[in-house]
Amino acid sequence: KVLDSQSSAEAGNAKQLHEDELKRAALFAAVLAAPLLILEMVPMLLPGGMALRDQLIPHSAMIALGFVLATIIQFGPGLRFYRAGLPALLGGSPDMNSLVMLGSTAAYGYSLVATFIPQVLPPGTRNVYYESSATIIAIILVGRWLEARSKGRTGDAIRGLLNLQAKTARVERDGAFVELP
User: Fold this and answer.
1) Assign residue 4 a region: left if phi > 0, alpha if psi is -120 to 50, beta otherwise?
2) Average pLDDT of the chain, as a whole number
3) Contacts of 98 (CB under 8 A, 6+ apart)
4) pLDDT tens digits along 35-53
5) CA–CA separation, 101 vs 89, rounded Å?
6) Of 162, 164, 142, which is closest to residue 154 (Cα–Cα)?
7) What value does the mean pLDDT take over residues 138-165?
8) Residue 102: pLDDT over 60
9) What's the burial of 112, exposed, middle or buried (CB within 10 Å: 0-12/13-18/19+)?
10) pLDDT for res 156
11) 63, 104 in Cβ contact below 8 A?
């Protein structure tokens, strides 16, 4: 029983460390992706918003900001998707990591081409999608963190219920009540 409780405690600690690491990665990615998402998407909701944004922030500054923040997210918190997704994809059994890796890399890679060698793209298609690559990673990480947190709480609740289980039972035997394990 001592070994069981010790291994259970170690597993709980490992789960907590994993949850804490996911939380840090998710919050880091979300904080860096938020300005990109806000600067790219909110102006589209407002009449004349894009023109106003373009007057306030030079196009080259928007692209530079997008490149820097998306690169940090892609190869910082997003590196986990390459480490897990690429081997799964190459092994012929792609998973969610492969999907996130492909989606974020497509947006990021296209944006790199549009940023650094736009002449290879047809006119009118030289848009950047740095906010998409960054947001994909941030949203998936937030989802994974919330999932890990939920699983941890569910496990705690189940352990609490198991602790409420009766250790003994009173059983009637030959007209007398006997307490049995």
Assistant:
1) alpha
2) 91
3) 85, 86, 88, 89
4) 999 999 999 999 999 999 9
5) 10
6) 162
7) 84
8) yes
9) middle
10) 73
11) no
User: What pTM does this model have?
Assistant: 0.80
More confident residue, 117 or 8: 117
DSSP the chain: -HHHHHHHHHHHHHHHHHHHHHHHHHHHHHHHHHHHHHHHHHHHHSTTHHHHHHHHS-HHHHHHHHHHHHHHHHHTTTHHHHHHHHHHHHTT---HHHHHHHHHHHHHHHHHHHHH-GGGSPTT-----HHHHHHHHHHHHHHHHHHHHHHHHHHHHHHHHHHTS-S-EEEEETTEEEEE-
Measured N-to-C along each axis, helices 130-163 and 2-45 cross at an angle, to the nearest 10 degrees, of: 150
Neighbours of 151 (CB within 10 A): 12
Q: Longest Cα pair distance anywhere in the chain, in angstroms?
A: 95
